[in-house]
TrEMBL record:
Domain DAGKc as annotated: residue spans: 48-127
Organism (species): Fibrisoma limi BUZ 3
Family matches, as InterPro entries: ATP-NAD_kinase_N (IPR017438), Diacylglycerol_kinase_cat_dom (IPR001206), NAD/diacylglycerol_kinase_sf (IPR016064)
Record's protein name: DAGKc domain-containing protein
Organism superkingdom: Bacteria
Signal peptide range: none
A Pfam family reported for this protein in Swiss-Prot or TrEMBL: DAGK_cat
MF GO annotations: kinase activity
Length: 301
């Protein structure tokens, strides 16, 4: 695989890389590199000569490209996606173990391997929806909406952005009303009032919260995290410890339940799908499962 198309979000991250810097890095490692900014129209056009895609951006940009891959016409199979993490959270990249520098990641593609990233699928909404990281209700949709309403501080670092999100989340946990839901995880029934309900395909969510350390996006099993009203203080303590730098993982504080299919009945107003929030109108019944085919991702060797 020698011909790559670089799909670049030039505004992602605190120190956005330039197109020239990225192309120089990729071409110096022996790849032919085409370029498109995801901020420009027509970035979705991919010629037949392209062997794989490079996404330089954050989780939102990865989702944007994945959506195009899932709906691309005239191509029998999706192209492999390689990630150069350039966003704030980079939860997908971290779940896939991409912790090296950009130089190390690009150099590793020659001896890399392709994995199938299984894609979550939601039925029961206005149209079928997909997700890479997770979907859920409760305090996380509220966090996403709240953060988007806040003005981003000028020259804010990645660490400052994550800290601000954790601080906001901690405040919301104390005030957000628990929501009544019924769900079936494979064959097991649950019904309660939940402060947080997350169906996860990645280890991390939001501001790098490691809610599902056992999650493996290759195994077609969700990790479902349920935080009831009674467990609200535990969730609050966990987020506060993260905010103050005293924790790095979820550990044994709350457990996740593995399931291959989730059926959910709720009257919530909002559901998040990755980093997008959709409004629900009245009682909603949804089924969450996996697409028959995953998406190929190229990991460095």
């Amino acid at each position: 695989m020698n011909v790559a198309k670089l799909l670049h979000n030039p505004t992602a991250g605190e120190a956005a890389s330039t197109a020239l810097e990225l192309r120089s890095l990729i071409e110096s490692n022996g790849f032919e590199c085409q370029y498109a900014s995801t901020k420009d129209s027509g970035w979705e056009t991919i010629g037949p000569e392209v062997d794989f895609l490079i996404v330089a951006g954050g989780d939102g940009t990865v989702r944007q490209v994945a959506q195009r891959q899932l709906t691309a016409p005239k191509r029998p199979e999706p192209l492999p996606i390689a990630i150069l993490p350039k966003g704030t959270a980079n939860n997908i990249a971290l779940t896939l173990g991409l912790t090296g520098t950009s130089d190390e990641i690009v150099a590793g593609w020659h001896r890399g391997r392709i994995i199938q990233y299984q894609v979550g699928l939601i039925h029961g909404l206005a149209k079928p929806e997909f997700f890479l990281e997770g979907c859920g209700l409760g305090v996380f949709p509220k966090l996403i909406n709240t953060m988007r309403d806040q003005e981003e501080a000028e020259n804010e670092t990645r660490e400052e952005s994550l800290l601000q999100a954790l601080t906001t989340l901690h405040s919301l946990i104390g005030s957000h009303r628990a929501e009544t839901c019924q769900l079936i995880l494979d064959t097991a029934n649950y019904a309660d009032e939940f402060v947080l309900l997350e169906v996860l395909n990645s280890r991390l969510l939001g501001p790098n919260l490691c809610l599902a350390p056992a999650a493996n996006p290759q195994d077609k099993a969700f990790e479902v995290v349920l935080v009831t009203e009674q467990e609200r203080p535990r969730l609050s303590r966990y987020v506060d410890a993260l905010r103050l730098g005293g924790l790095t993982g979820w550990g044994d504080r709350l457990s996740a339940i593995s399931a291959t299919q989730v059926k959910l009945s709720t009257q919530t107003d909002y559901l998040h799908i990755d980093d997008e929030v959709i409004s629900l109108d009245g009682p909603t019944d949804i089924t969450i499962s996996f697409r028959a085919q995953g998406l190929p991702f190229l990991l460095p060797g």
